[in-house]
Amino acid sequence: MRQIHPQAHTIPVVRAEIARSTERTNVFARCFGISDETVRKWRKRVVERCTDRSSRPRSLACKAIEEERVVVCHMCRATEFGLDDLTFVLRHFLPHLNRDSVWRILKDAGLNCWSPKSKIRPARGDSTFRDYDLGYVHIYVRHFPKLQTQNDKARKCFLYVAIDCCSRLVHLAVYNAENAANAVNFLTAA
């Protein structure tokens, strides 16, 4: 059984009575404390259609195509970032995806919640990193598949990641090419 809409001024029984009756509009409006326009609206409807309709959208307007879904899932698995950090990084090369879209994509793929093991950071001595001096940096460049831009052009993206092995600080940047100029720009920005 459907519930009455929380903002409805009338209930289905009253609506059906309005639809069946031949009484004047202003009489019903005063009797039930509603406007004349509401009475006219319910008179136009058939008695069987006097129940509330669902206010749930028929479909979600998810803007991501299949290639973008693959990129979001790959990025989530590769970095194990939280939703906000992942959205921040993805907005560099998928600007039309917002936080809700990224969450829906991860939920569809079953990646919306990590296992308790991956949420716990290892103790300082249990990590897989060796002990390095401050300033020793690992640099990775990850290639993403070609993505369609808004102009239907294919665009290659590269994710540059720098990790300071001592402090474990991470710096990310997205560039359109993997070349020395972008590497220098990335290192000077870090």
Explain this structure.
Helix content is 38%, strand content 15%. Mean pLDDT is 76; it is low at 116-120. β2 (154-164) and β3 (170-175) form a beta hairpin. It has helices at residues 12-20, 25-32, 36-44, 66-79, 83-90, 99-109, 116-119, 180-189, and strands at 137-148, 154-164, 170-175. α1 packs across α3 (36-44) and α2 (25-32) crosses α3.
Q: How are the secondary structure elements laid out?
A:
Layout: H1 12-20, H2 25-32, H3 36-44, H4 66-79, H5 83-90, H6 99-109, H7 116-119, E1 137-148, E2 154-164, E3 170-175, H8 180-189
Antiparallel strand pairs: 1-2, 2-3
Helix pairs in contact: 1-3, 2-3, 4-6
Summarize the structure.
This protein has 190 residues and is an alpha+beta fold. It has eight helices and three strands.
Q: What is the tally of beta strands? A: 3
Main β-sheet, spatial strand arrangement: 1-2-3
* Multimer state: single chain
Distance separating the two termini: 59 Å
Shape: elongated
What is the beta-strand fraction? 15-25%
Report the biggest beta sheet as strand number plus sense, adding barrel if it closes: 3 strands, antiparallel
User: Compute the gyration radius: what is it?
Assistant: 28 Å
Question: Which structural class is indicated by helix and strand composition?
Answer: alpha+beta
Return residue spans where pLDDT drops below 50 for at least 5 consecutive residues: 116-120
Mean pLDDT: 76
Number of helices: 8
- H/E topology pattern: HHHHHHHEEEH
Helix content: 25-40%
